[in-house]
Amino acid sequence: MSQIYPIPPNRKTANGRAVESVTADDSLKPAMVKEALEVWQPRSKRPLSEEDAREIIENTTGFFKLLHKWKRAETLENKIDKEKD
């Protein structure tokens, strides 16, 4: 079963649409790839392909998963430290 990493529904893109969830091992929806191109193409000096957009989505998702993992570990560590005191 794949894990789902939802983005809060109040997170909107520049055009006002809600960002969809990204799953760990499902293929990305064409609409997500299109939206990634819309967001990132103006920031790139070279034309971006659909594969570039997929990679951007996967890397961004991985980055935020890692931040979340670190935050959870830090919170758990703080809780353990407080219990020792």
From TrEMBL:
Highest taxon of the lineage: Bacteria
Region (Disordered): 1-23
Name used for this protein in its record: Uncharacterized protein
